[in-house]
User: What shape does this take?
Amino acid sequence: MRHIIVLDADPMTRTTLAEHLADDAFRVTGLDDMTALERILAGQRVDALVIDVNSDEDFDTVRYLAERTSAPIIILSHSRLQEDDKVRGLEAGAADYIAKPLACREFLARLRVAMRGKRTIRVDRDIRSYAFAGTTLWVRQRNLCRPGAVDVKLTAAEFNLFVAFLQAPRQILSREQLLTASRVHAQEINDRSLDALILRLRRKIEIDPVNPQLIRTVRGAGYRLESDVVIDDRPRRRF
Assistant: This one.
């Protein structure tokens, strides 16, 4: 049975979602406290997170959780419904952004889509790292390491997007492919979200983000990683 966490201060929302999800054979844990959520993430399997967002601090919470779990995050909100808020939530690592009050059938459908897309980019567990242009991306830690520089942590969306490039070096990837890879909900907002995500990634991997040499724009076609890539994919031991 799939386990869904609902983090919402409103007990009515928690109860409503729990009832509808339980009817659809999901196990639901309703919470209003981050400390309890972190305890669950540390010791239990979680298949999706549903989080109420109504303040700037809530966006920080989404970003924090996206860096610590691969479970898709769905944002709920009744007050932060402008396009810029949606862009901000998706850039923070959310898989979807849904307005309150909820239409429960639509919510269930979008939850299933988010969980299906959870492994759009399949990272083989035997792949330990990707090496490119004097830099190494360590898969488990999602860290970029460059000699003589401070390690850089990637968010879940940045990591998924960059793995798409690393798995197809020197190939043009379309905007649609990259939107899917980074788990940005293409029908929810326009392509500004992808442009913002590319910009953030360039700031972390390029020597000069204003004049990018690694992730190059191919006008009218998409983007391309201009580097060879060495994959450390040592086989798993067999006993």
Observations:
- The chain has two domains: 3-119, 129-232.
- The two ends are 30 Å apart (CA to CA).
